Amino acid sequence: MAQPLAELITAAAAGHFPAADGGWRRIAPWRPGLEAIIAFTGHAVLAVAPDIPDQLVVSLGVNGFGGAHDPRLIAALAGPGGWIDSLDMLLAGRGSGREGEPPRLADRPDLAAHPRAEFAATIRDQPRLMGYPSADQSALAVISRGIAGLTELSFELEPARRGQGGGAGLVRDALAAIPCGELVVAAVAQQFPPTAAARRLRGLPRPGWPRWRRQPPARRGPPPPR
Q1: What is the pLDDT at residue 207?
Q2: What phi, psi does 98 have (nearest 5°)?
Q3: How far is Cα 219 from Cα 194, in angstroms, rounded to an integer?
Q4: CA separation, residue 53 to residues 56, 104, 179 (Å)
Q5: Is the four-CA dihedral 217, 144, 178, 153 of positive or negative sign?
Q6: Please, which residues bridge with residue 218 across strands?
Q7: Do residues 207 and 73 make contact, with C-beta atoms less than 8 angstroms apart?
Q8: Phi/psi of residue 119, nearest 5 degrees
Q9: What distance in Å separates the CA atoms of residue 169 and residue 106, rounded to the nearest whole number?
Q10: The pLDDT of residue 86
Q11: Which of 42, 52, 103, 221 lies 20 to 30 A from 162 at CA?
Q12: How far is Cα 41 from Cα 218, in angstroms, rounded to an integer?
């Protein structure tokens, strides 16, 4: 059975959104120890463990019109020893890989110590580290089983190559390593200065990549390495 959030995201990527009724719903987390809140327009989805009572989230003002991102609610979900990640913009696109057309990116296990690779390994499953074949290039694309069990892409370009269209090229090359038509999600952190967030969004090629807000992830335990 598909994860309920995966079904919602898949439908939204096809243009079919939850009703903007100001409501909220809860579902089971897709990964043990990791919880999240995803906000569509006017509707929130809480992927939280069963030991979080509805009465608690209601008392903290949860709703689909912004209350689901109230800091008091997030802190209560994480608990006193938990870790809270940034507010992300969640985007969706599609793989473009085709049989008989090898991708430009190659597996790069030598980039496992890259901070983005280390972070992905703590909150996602089956991370595949990919980059350009040349050993003197360290651009990284991580293709994982991530949010709601969907294919998730994260990426980082070398600082010297930023601002020249290299980010969009890296994303296109990463999508070519994913079967054509397969849904792919990407989370763009919003805690950066607006100019930095804008650069990350420009790195995602058009058309496609519809957007929603995602709060977390949150976890009840020590923070992962960054």
Answers
A1: 46
A2: -135, 145
A3: 26
A4: 5, 48, 40
A5: positive
A6: 35, 84
A7: no
A8: -65, -45
A9: 15
A10: 84
A11: 103
A12: 21
- The model's confidence at residue 205, banded by pLDDT at 50, 70 and 90, is low
Instruction: Return the percent helix, strand and coil in the chain, to nearest 5.
Output: 30, 30, 40
Phi, psi of 62 (to 5 degrees): -60, 140
The region that residue 79 occupies, defined by phi over 0 for left and psi between -120 and 50 for alpha, beta otherwise, is left
**Which residues are bridge partners to 142 per DSSP?**
129, 154
- Structural tokens at position 91: 């985007």
pLDDT > 70? residue 121: yes
Tell me how far CA of residue 143 lies from CA of 128, 193, 208, in angstroms.
5, 26, 18
* Secondary structure letter of residue 36 according to DSSP: E
Whether the pLDDT of residue 181 is over 80: the answer is: yes
The DSSP code for 223 is P
Report yes or no: 117 and 139 within 8 Å, Cβ to Cβ: no
Cβ partners under 8 Å of residue 154, min gap 6: 116, 120, 141, 142, 144, 186, 187
- Strands (DSSP E) contained in 3-73 are 23-27, 34-40, 43-47
SS3 48: coil
The residue with greater pLDDT, 166 or 113, is 113
Polymer length in residues for the chain: 226
Q: How large is the angle between the packed helices 166-175 and 194-202, nearest 10 degrees? A: 50
* 31 touches 213 (CB < 8 A): no
